[in-house]
Amino acid sequence: MTAFLKAEKLHKSFGGVRAVHDVSVEVQEGSIFALIGPNGAGKSTLLNLLSGVHQPASGSLVFNQKNLIGLRAYQRARLGIARTFQKIRLFKQLTLLENVLAGFHIHQDVPLWKCFLPSSSTRFRADALELLAFVGLDSRANDRAGALSYGQQRMLEIARALATRPRLFMLDEPAAGLNAAEVEFLLKRLQNINRRNVTVLVVEHNMDLVMNVAQRVLVMDHGVRIFEGTPREVQANPRVIEAYLGGEFAA
Fold first, then answer.
1. pLDDT exceeds 70 at position 233
2. Is 171 helix (H, G, I), strand (E, B) or coil?
3. How far apart are CA 237 and CA 251, in angstroms?
4. How far apart are CA 18 and CA 9, in angstroms?
5. Rounded mean pLDDT, 203-219
6. What is the pTM of this model?
7. CA dist 87 to 18, 83, 112, 174, Å?
8. Higher local confidence (pLDDT), 107 or 1
9. CB atoms near residue 251 (< 10 Å)
10. For residues 206 and 213, is the Cβ–Cβ distance under 8 A?
11. Which of 58, 127, 196, 229 has a CA-to-CA distance to 23 between 20 and 30 Å?
12. Strands 32-36 and 216-221
């Protein structure tokens, strides 16, 4: 089986600090794949390499049989790769609807500001409202994004990313700062996104979420991969327990 996303021996350093060293990963189409590890393990750097925020110093990277090395983030987005960041990045002075409409910009050959004109926005308005409903925010479509709670802003960011119509959706710590009910809602959204034929890759510290949503889990520590397997295999691996999980999630 050919991997949907395949990275081999990716390496990235910053000022002599080895953030990612010879990391290889394969993500199968239609799966939910999780990336875990302690702070400073290199997880976000790896996600930045996969999404085009950074370029690797060495290694290979292929998505849907297309070489990604050298492609910038917006070029990868056009191939069907979307992501969210640890720090929420919304247009907080715009409405929720306008934020999601901005995500549809990738499907239009016009400057971003023209996406909000009636002549352009009408085309995607129904789809944008549907995405807001998907994340439970359709009743606030005309509210300013900055007026939302933290958890609601996280959901809006997910809706905007989905507006790019990704085939691979990567999320960097989406459960950070969410309460238990919001984490449960997020878990169900991720499963629902996956059922829409979107492959999901999630970087996360919330092990309840990871163990209940992922089919495969890659564990990193100090910039290298230390184990990959099913959630149950990860929970039982002595090296993972020592480096990250401790006893709480050990099988």
1. yes
2. strand
3. 9
4. 13
5. 94
6. 0.91
7. 23, 12, 22, 9
8. 107
9. 12
10. no
11. 196
12. parallel
> Are 124 and 160 in contact, with CB atoms under 8 Å apart?
no
- With tokens 């890759």, the residue in question is 201
Residue 195, token pair as written in the block: 């059922």
Between residues 157 and 120, the one the model is more confident about: 157
Q: Where are the strands (E) in 88-212, listed by range? A: 168-172, 199-203
What do you get for the CA distance between the two ends of the chain, in Å?
30
Would the pLDDT of 208 be above 60? yes
Quote the radius of gyration of the chain (alpha carbons, Å).
Answer: 18
Return the SS3 of 46: helix
Structural domains of the chain, with CATH: 1-80+166-251 (3.40.50.300), 90-164 (no CATH)
**What is the residue whose two structure tokens read 């969410």?**
178
17: exposed, middle or buried (Cβ count in 10 Å: 0-12, 13-18, 19+):
exposed
Q: How far apart are CA 74 and CA 55, in angstroms?
A: 13
pLDDT value for 109: 66
Token couple for 169: 């959706």
Q: To 10 degrees, what angle do helices 150-162 and 96-103 make? A: 30
Distance of alpha carbon 132 from alpha carbon 13, whole angstroms: 39
- Tokens describing residue 109: 């050959």
Q: In 3-state terms, what secondary structure has residue 123?
A: helix
By the 8 A CB rule, do 156 and 180 touch?
no
| Average pLDDT value for residue range 14-24 | 92
What residue has token string 């989406």? 174
CA 6 to mean position of chain CA atoms? 16
pLDDT tens, residue by residue, 44-82? 999 999 999 999 999 999 999 999 999 999 999 999 999
